[in-house]
Design a protein that fits this description.
It is built from six helices and ten strands. The chain has 210 residues and is an alpha/beta fold. The strands form two sheets. Strands 3-2-1-4-5-6-10-8 form an eight-stranded mixed β-sheet, with helices on both faces. A two-stranded parallel sheet has the order 7-9. β4, α3 and β5 (101-105) form a beta-alpha-beta unit. The protein starts with a strand and ends with a strand. Bound molecules: NADP nicotinamide-adenine-dinucleotide phosphate. NADP nicotinamide-adenine-dinucleotide phosphate binds next to α1, α3 and β7.
């Protein structure tokens, strides 16, 4: 398939590119700093761009079979709208170019998975560190849900840099109100790529944990 990856210089995005190429997909990655991609591959196209600039996405989206987003940032302590604005631009470019399949990472703990990142996140990390980020993620999800795309919102537990596993748990009720469940970025990428030929979670919000 022809895939557009957003966030390809990040932890999960790098895995999406690597595993996607291994599966034989043709990958286009829109990245702010192409120099951060340290390898080349005949099936990998790197475009310099920024999700906050709609024109960056117009050309990139054309002719793709699906878009996979691992967009994120670390500006936790300021009120930002990067995730929601960037995602709005992605949705708009996809809608305009009739690209329907959108697979996007948000997080457990958002909207109807509230409190499902465990007590530590619920009482400490989210209110004291991730509050603005989670407010923006919540808006990001709502924009996706309102779209006419064939979307899947993937809500991981706490991310690690561990190895890819294939026996992870996923579904609409995973997560814990007490414990913080983990999942590796490599496993999240595997799950996202597996959604490309699977209709189970179209217009659904599966969580994913070890
Ligand atoms: N950490 C956790 O425990 C956890 C738990 C659940 C969910 N998540 C979510 O999972 C997702 C992936 O996490 P991660 O740690 O793999 O991400 P990450 O390493 O922070 O990577 C984020 C990616 O987004 C890109 N990006 C940021 N702003 C951009 C813009 N304006 N235009 C284009 N690209 C932009 C970054 O590009 P640059 O390289 O240029 O900065 C980077 O490639 C995030 O949404 C995160 O919130 C994380």
């Amino acid at each position: 398939m022809k895939l557009l990856v957003i966030g390809g210089t990040g932890g999960t995005g790098r895995e999406l590119i690597k595993q996607g190429l291994d599966k034989g997909h043709i990958i286009t990655a829109v990245v702010r700093k192409p120099i951060k991609i340290k390898y080349s591959h005949p099936n990998l196209i790197i475009l310099k761009g920024n999700v906050l600039i709609p024109e960056s996405l117009e050309q990139a989206v054309q002719g793709q079979d699906a878009v996979l987003s691992a967009l994120g940032h670390k500006k936790f302590f300021i009120k930002t709208t990067i995730l929601s604005r960037g995602t709005k631009n992605i949705i708009s470019a996809m809608t305009k170019n009739q690209v329907k399949r959108f697979i996007c990472i948000t997080s457990l703990g958002i909207n109807d998975s509230k409190f499902k990142l465990g007590l530590y996140y619920t009482l400490f990390t989210i209110p004291l560190i991730l509050l603005f980020y989670f407010i923006d993620k919540s808006k990001q999800e709502k924009l996706i849900m309102k779209s006419t795309l064939d979307w899947t919102i993937i809500r991981p537990g706490q991310l690690t840099n561990g190895k890819k596993r294939t026996n992870y748990k996923h579904g609409l009720t995973v997560g814990s109100y007490i414990l913080t469940k983990m999942i590796s970025r490599a496993s999240v990428a595997d799950f996202m790529l597996n959604q490309l030929d699977n209709q189970t979670y179209i217009r659904k919000t599966p969580g994913i944990i070890n």
